[in-house]
Amino acid sequence: MAKFYITTTLPYVNAPPHIGFALELVRADIIARYHRLLGDEVIFNTGTDEHGLKVYRNALKENKDPKEYVDMLVKRFVSLKSTLNVSYTNFIRTTDPHHKKAAQEFWNRCSASGDIYKQLYSIKYCVGCELEKTESELDEYGRCPIHPNLEIEIIEEENYFFRWSKYQEKLLELYSSRPDFVLPSFRMNELRNFVSSGLRDFSITRRREKMPWGVAVPEDDEHVMYVWFDALVNYISTLGWPEDEKKFKNFWPGIQIAGKDNLRQQAAMWQAMLMSAGLPCSKQILINGFIESGGHKMSKSLGNVVDPTDVVGQYGTDALRYWFAREVPAFDDGDFTQDKFAFAYEGNLVNGLGNYIQRVSTMVKNYFPEGIARPSTEDLLKVALKRGDSEYVALEYFIKRIIAKEYREAMEKFELTKAIDKIFELLKELDVFVQVHEPFKLIKKDKEKAKVILWNLCYGAVGLAWLLIPFLPETSDKIFDIFGITEKNPPAGGPKWDNFKAKEHKALFPRIEK
C-alpha cells in the first residue's frame, strides 16, 4: 500500500469561506479519493490560518480575546466537511499547541543554518495579503491590486529576516530538475522568471508590543513570528513533525494545492525555508485560478462573493462538486454565474446523468423485477459497441480497458476536467446504445435480447458510479444502491459486477423551480 499526502493551503480564519477556497478543497478531495480508490493510504490535510495582524485587529474591534475570536470563526471552516462532502483526515489550526512547538523548532533549524538575522527596515505592507509590497506590485493608485479597498501601510521597525536571497540558485536548480514541480507549466515559467529576477530577504517577525498575536520567537520574547513563517509549517506539523519521524518520512514530501496568488509564498518562500531547515521540498504545487463572477474577480467591495453554502443549499453538494470538476478549467480562471450554473445542472446532471439512471433502472425494475444475471460472452458480443468505421467492442471492455485507462491517465496528470469528461463520454455512448437498441420496444419482440441489452446498460450505469467515486461520491453511492451493488470493487483489473437488480428511487438531481 503506497502512502499519499495532499494538502490545501490554509485560509485566513477571519473571512467567511468563499467559493475559491471551496474549489481548492474539493479538488484536493477528488485527488485524495482517487488515491484511496487505487488502494493508497491517504492523509489529506486542511485547516485554518489563525494568526496575523488582520485577525488581531478584528478581534480588538469586537472586544474579544484573539483566541476566543478564532475559536468562534473556525466553526465556519469545520462545517465545510459536511457541506462539500470532503474526506480530509487532518484539520490543523495554527493555534494548536503542537503546531506552535513545531514552528519554533523549524525556526531553530533555519537559525542554525545561519538564515535568520535581525535588521532595521521600512516597508510598504498590505494587511490583506499579510505581505510586504514593492512599488511594481502596487497599482497606479499605490494600492494592492488584490485588496484595493485597503490602504498600504508603512512599517518601520527592527525585525528578524530570512535569507531568501541565499536560495535563488538552489530554487532555480530545483525547478530545472523537476519541471513538473508546479502545474500548469505556464505557472512554472512565471515562478522561474520571478525567482530569476532576484530574491529579497523578507521579514519573519513582528514586535510583540505592536502585534502580540502570533507564535513566540524562541529566546526573544519581544517578537512573534510573522504569519507566513508560522502558517507554512502546518504542512509538516500536521504529520507529527518533528517528533514522529517515521510518519513524517512515510508521507513527506506530498502534493500541495494552491491558488495562483499564493505562488511565490508556496513554491518559492516555503521551499527555500524547507531547504534551510534541511527538509525535502514538496512534490508538486498545483495552482488553481480565480473564480470570477460575471467576468469580474470576486470581492466583498463589488458585492459579488459567492457563498458555497448557498449554492449547496439550492442545488446539492454534488452539483457544486460537478461544477468545480468539469466547468472550471483545471489550471485556469473560471467564471461563475447563477445562469451558467443552472444551465450546466439542468443539461448535464438532470437531463444527462440523472435521466439515464432513471430510464435504465425503471426498465429493469418493470421488465425484470427478479434481476438480471450476466449473459453469456457470445450474447454480449452480439450487441457490441461500434467504434470507428468497423471496430466493435463489448461495452464491458470499453469501460474497463478504454475509458478507465484514459480516465486514469488524466487523473495521474491532475487533469481533473479531462478525467470527468471521460465519464460523460461514456454516458454519451450509453445514451446512443439505448437509442440504437431501443430495449423499451425490443421487450415486446425478444425478451431475452432485451435482457442482454439491459444488463449492458446496468453495467454502464454502475461503471459510471465507479468512475464518479472521486468526483460525486454521494451520487456514486446512490447509483450503486439503486442497482443492488453492495461492494465497490477496486480498479485493479476493472470491475467484475455480474448481477443487477434495480429498485425504485428518487431523482438523483431534482429539477429546480424557477
UniProtKB/TrEMBL annotation:
<dbReference type="InterPro" id="IPR023457">
    <property type="entry name" value="Met-tRNA_synth_2"/>
</dbReference>
<keyword id="KW-0547">Nucleotide-binding</keyword>
<keyword id="KW-0030">Aminoacyl-tRNA synthetase</keyword>
<keyword id="KW-0067">ATP-binding</keyword>
<dbReference type="GO" id="GO:0005524">
    <property type="term" value="F:ATP binding"/>
</dbReference>
<dbReference type="InterPro" id="IPR014729">
    <property type="entry name" value="Rossmann-like_a/b/a_fold"/>
</dbReference>
<dbReference type="InterPro" id="IPR033911">
    <property type="entry name" value="MetRS_core"/>
</dbReference>
<dbReference type="InterPro" id="IPR014758">
    <property type="entry name" value="Met-tRNA_synth"/>
</dbReference>
<feature type="domain" description="Methionyl/Leucyl tRNA synthetase">
    <location>
        <begin position="153"/>
        <end position="360"/>
    </location>
</feature>
<dbReference type="InterPro" id="IPR015413">
    <property type="entry name" value="Methionyl/Leucyl_tRNA_Synth"/>
</dbReference>
<dbReference type="GO" id="GO:0004825">
    <property type="term" value="F:methionine-tRNA ligase activity"/>
</dbReference>
<comment type="similarity">
    <text>Belongs to the class-I aminoacyl-tRNA synthetase family.</text>
</comment>
<feature type="domain" description="Methionyl/Leucyl tRNA synthetase">
    <location>
        <begin position="5"/>
        <end position="146"/>
    </location>
</feature>
<keyword id="KW-0648">Protein biosynthesis</keyword>
<dbReference type="GO" id="GO:0006431">
    <property type="term" value="P:methionyl-tRNA aminoacylation"/>
</dbReference>
<keyword id="KW-0436">Ligase</keyword>
<comment type="function">
    <text>Is required not only for elongation of protein synthesis but also for the initiation of all mRNA translation through initiator tRNA(fMet) aminoacylation.</text>
</comment>
<protein>
    <recommendedName>
        <fullName>Methionine--tRNA ligase</fullName>
        <ecNumber>6.1.1.10</ecNumber>
    </recommendedName>
</protein>
<dbReference type="InterPro" id="IPR009080">
    <property type="entry name" value="tRNAsynth_Ia_anticodon-bd"/>
</dbReference>
<dbReference type="Pfam" id="PF09334">
    <property type="entry name" value="tRNA-synt_1g"/>
</dbReference>
